[in-house]
Amino acid sequence: MRLNFDLEVWVSFASLGLGVMFVLLLSSFYAFLVGPDKLGPDRYVDISGVLIKTISISGAPSVILAAITYGLSKSHGNRLAGSVVSITGIIIIIGMSFSLSISSEIPTEFFQEIILYIPYIFVIVSIGIVIIGLRIYLNSKKGVRPGKFH
After folding, report:
1. Whole-angstrom Cα distance, residue 89 to residue 132?
2. Angstrom distance (rounded) from CA 81 to CA 38
3. What is the spatial distance between Cα 68 and Cα 12, in angstroms, rounded to a whole number?
4. What pTM, to 2 d.p., does this model score?
5. What are phi and psi of 139, to 5 degrees?
6. Are 99 and 30 in contact (CB under 8 A)?
7. What is the pLDDT of residues 93-141, one digit of tens each?
């Protein structure tokens, strides 16, 4: 079986994978901060360091790859790539909502303001990702990729 997709489709799949990874990493870290008995972890944790690493490893690359997908297909569009990018945005929005619900249970000695800022920032960014995905999807009817049909 050959998967003969365009480059923008593969980039959108990478964006989806990194978006899912970001949601899972952030949610599991917030659950770790809550702890099994809702008392928090029993060891020192550099909260801002872990959050910055999580964003650097998966959150920001997911957003960047969604933008690259848009750049690759803005003139001709691609339905599959647009759908995958929109799903990425929706998954991140749902994951950030879940992370916000977990953040209210984090004990005060482990709570920092950055814990609340990150989900709100990524909800706003994810709304943009959904819009980008919809634009890619809707542009698929308007243009024909140069060199695609000879």
Report:
1. 9
2. 41
3. 9
4. 0.89
5. -75, -10
6. yes
7. 999 999 999 999 999 888 899 999 999 999 999 999 999 999 999 988 7
